[in-house]
Amino acid sequence: MIKDLLTEEPCGQHTVTRGWVRTKRTMKNLVFIEVYDGSCFAALQCTFDRTTELSIETQTTLDALSTGASVEISGKLVSSPAQGQCVELAADEARLIGAASGESYPLQKKGHSFEFLREIAHLRPRTATIGAVARIRSRLAYAVHTFFQEQGFQYVHTPIITTNDAEGTGAMFQITTLDLAKITAGTLDYSKDFFGKKAFLTVSGQLEGETYAAALSRIYTFGPTFRAENSNTSRHLAEFWMIEPEIAFAHLEDDMALAEKFIKYLFTDILDKHSDDLEFFDTHIEKGLIATLQSVADSRFTHITYTDAIRELEHHAANFEFKPFWGCDLQSEHEKFLTEQLAHGPVIVTDYPKEIKAFYMKTNSDGKTVRAMDVLVPRLGEIIGGSEREDDLEQLQLRMRELGMDIPSYWWYLDLRRFGSVPHAGFGLGFERLVQYVTGMANIRDVIPYPRAAGQAEF
Ligand code: 4AD
Ligand code: MG
Question: Is 202 in the pocket of ligand 1 (CB under 6 A)?
């Protein structure tokens, strides 16, 4: 792979490389072909000298090659006189593997907009930016597993199809095998549906995750989740991946400590392992990105209760379009203020009003707030949402009744509070929000291969 070639000491060894043509330039008798194979940010420059003896196949290939074509090129690895690269290939043989039918290849020119690239999502990983996003995404996924596995967490696969609404927001995609075209008003009978009742795509693996934490002590999930929120923002997807650790014998403080350690581990790892890709993002996408990631990795996260945060926000109410008040959900502009103006770094907001949080969170002794925590980071806002869970059966049932939930259908979840209940806590990290933060990409749709959002499910 090109990544390995670029780290080799160039001493004229014969090398074969395969990849796609990024550019072809001709200068007098020299032909320069930039080949990439996606293994790293850099491409390999292959230089042909047409005054030397070249086979007929090589000559025809050089004439026919255009951006996007796949090739196999052989030559000697030598140190490069050109700026910005240490090695290049003094090439003597080229073989066309697949032509990229000339003019119609959509990635001819550099500098296409990200909106346009979304329309050709099957080709966009061939661009420098989306290719770099893909490598960072892959490494971050690996680092997620490494972090948890090294600390004795077990990876649990929770179901994608579910019959409960874990977050209680009702923003769920229903799934059915009933023939909707044949159903007339009033005849819908879910007992005849595939699962014998209404079923959905999951919004979170947490509730099932809790059952495994109540058996294995420390678990995490990492899988796709689905939300039918019609929020057309640069931070929301209808299908996104979430990492949800859950720890038994733990309280909110342990949860916050884990979240901070986790984020710092991920940032430190990516700074160490993908500096080439990050330098690209720092130069072309978000100036100062590397410094921001480093400062988060070195920082101490600020803790503030929701009540104190609202007080601070009210003092600066003139700054906001949406006036803050106790009981309101924090808006992006509020999150930005807390991280960028108040704390100058990541902030963990705790103890939110119970009305704006999910049913499973542990109620504080004030009866008004719950043991919730959201981790907010500068620029992006909420990256993690978590809480200590209500481990008391009576309290939990009380809250579910207040919310008018169908208690019997949560019998298995309530059983955890009946048999060997323990204090426990966990959180959810939105994987795409993480990739977005690490790359500085403005729109979350550009950090997942095939984004799903309202009106968008092509490919
Ligand atoms: O805050 P949320 O809704 O929390 C939960 O789902 C809990 N069950 C987590 C837990 O305690 N185990 O979502 C968690 C995170 C958010 O902080 C955000 O990063 C991300 O998931 N997220 C989304 N990412 C992309 N698109 C969306 N529509 C998202 N909704 C939430
Ligand atoms: Mg949340």
Answer: no
In the predicted model, what is the mean pLDDT of residues 169-179? 92
Mutate to test the pocket of ligand 1, among 330, 433, 444 (most ligand atoms within 8 A of CB): 433
pTM of the model: 0.96
The ligand 1 atom nearest the CA atom of 245:
12
Ligand 1 atom, smallest distance to 382 CA: 17
**Is the beta carbon of 143 within 6 A of some atom in ligand 1?**
no
The answer to whether the CB of 132 falls within 8 A of the CB of 277 is yes
Q: Could you tell me if the CB of 362 is within 6 A of ligand 1?
A: no
> What average pLDDT does the segment 68-88 reach?
89
Report the C-alpha gap between 25 and 43 in whole angstroms.
14
The residue with tokens 């899988």 is: 223
DSSP one-letter string for 284-333:
HT-TTHHHHHHHHHHS--EEEEHHHHHHHHHHTGGG-SS---TTPPPPHH
What's the CATH code, domain 2-104? 2.40.50.140
For residue 415, the CA-to-ligand 2 centroid distance in Å is 26
Other CB atoms within 10 A of residue 140 CB: 21
Coil, helix or strand for 168?
coil
User: Is it true that 2-104 and 124-446 share their CATH fold?
Assistant: no
> Which ligand 1 atom lies nearest to the CA of residue 231?
28
Q: Per residue in 316-327, pLDDT tens?
A: 999 999 999 999
Cβ contact 34:111 at 8 Å: no
pLDDT value of position 416: 97
| pLDDT of 242 strictly over 90 | yes
Among all ligands shown, which has an atom nearest to the Cα of 382? 1
**For residues 243 and 225, what is the distance between their CA atoms, to the nearest angstrom?**
10
Q: Among 288, 285, 211, 203, which Cα is nearest to 239's?
A: 203
Residue type, 155: Y
Are 339 and 360 a contacting pair, CB within 8 Å? no
Single-letter amino acid code for the residue at 320? F
Quick check: 219 pLDDT over 80?
yes
CA 430 to ligand 1 center in whole angstroms: 5
Cβ neighbours of residue 6 closer than 8 Å, sequence gap 6 or more: 40, 42, 44, 85, 86, 87
The domains of the chain are located at 2-104, 124-446
Q: Ligand 1 atom 21: the closest Cα is on which residue?
A: 430
What's the 383 CA to ligand 2 centre distance in angstroms?
8
Computed on alpha carbons and rounded to an integer, the radius of gyration of the chain in Å comes to 27
User: Is 137 close to ligand 1, i.e. is its CB under 6 Å away?
Assistant: no
The fold adopted by the segment(s) 124-446 is: BirA Bifunctional Protein; domain 2 (3.30.930)
